[in-house]
Amino acid sequence: MANSVIGRDMAVDLGTANTLVYVRKKGVLLDEPSVVALNTTTRDVLAVGNEAKRMIGRTPDHIRAIRPLKDGVIADFDAAEQMLRYFIATVHRRRYLAKPRLVVCVPSGITTVEQRAVKEAGYLAGARRVYIIEEPMAAAIGAGLPVHEATGNMVVDIGGGTTEVAVISLGGVVASMSVRSAGDELDQAIITWLKKEHGLMLGEHTAEEIKMTLGSAYPLPQEVDAEVRGRDMASGLPRTVTVSTREIRQAMEEPITVIVDAVRETLDQTPPELAGDIMDRGVVLTGGGALLRGLDELIRHETGIPVHVAQDPLTSVAMGAGKCVEEFEALQQVLVADRR
């Protein structure tokens, strides 16, 4: 029995946009949107994850599809706890006996109160012990950086709600910065731009698709145009406009600048020896935002430092937290311990 209990330890990358669950010895078993659909009159949960995300912007008045996390922290405690409980139960189907040890990733700028809320949600969702790991540390471990060595490693984790920039050496964060400019902010910038420039209303889902297909942070060798459909603000009727990759880049310029500035500022706080290491080794980009075309080139252009995108940027944080579950004793020092 002891062995099977250990086998159930898990790590959760509780993201603003997506939640990933890593189960010991099994890898990432769940990757779903961090969305909960609630009946507003009874507060009953109707759907979680993919099913709930499909409901965003399409629900009747008494049903609300909400995202329990905002900017990487819990905004709606009950919904977050229900969501966590649902995801843990999904992964542990038919095996409710074991209370797992849980490693949860949180943004580095999170307050103690917010940290407590995350832990509490973990305990209420059925965990035996809850450990916290800072997202940039998990991202660095997941990206395969030698975090325990006496060399400077810089990781930039661009998620849905926050961008975490950190310099890591000897198993600890030496300099870090967390800015609330990330994937969601880029979507919002596209919505605002099309409203202002074309008088077109877009939904979040459409904005995200535009970002993924047309978005770029650096001039492309070949700029392309595409048609975008939304609602005309004057007539209220559906309308299609043509936008170019150049225009979408312009729309996202502000939030992207915030991310680049955070990288600059973190380098500025870094001790000279470690800064030298980073010049040699480069910066590693992880998180969904790392997939934005040309972002690595832009940061390279602005800082003069080599930039690499992690092998699988979307799962780096979950894989890093998962590694802490697999090699618990060896990596325990990077976790924020908890006495309960």
Automatic annotation (TrEMBL):
Gene3D superfamilies (UniProt xref): 3.30.420.40
One example GO MF annotation: ATP binding
Keyword Protein biosynthesis among UniProt keywords: no
Subcellular location: Cytoplasm
Keywords: ATP-binding, Cell shape, Cytoplasm, Nucleotide-binding
First-listed, main subcellular location of the protein, grouped into a coarse class: cytoplasm
The protein's assembly and partners: Forms polymers.
Task of the protein: Forms membrane-associated dynamic filaments that are essential for cell shape determination. Acts by regulating cell wall synthesis and cell elongation, and thus cell shape. A feedback loop between cell geometry and MreB localization may maintain elongated cell shape by targeting cell wall growth to regions of negative cell wall curvature.
NCBIfam families the UniProt entry points to: mreB, PRK13927.1
Stated name of the protein: Cell shape-determining protein MreB
Species annotation: Nocardioides mangrovicus
Gene from which this protein is expressed: mreB
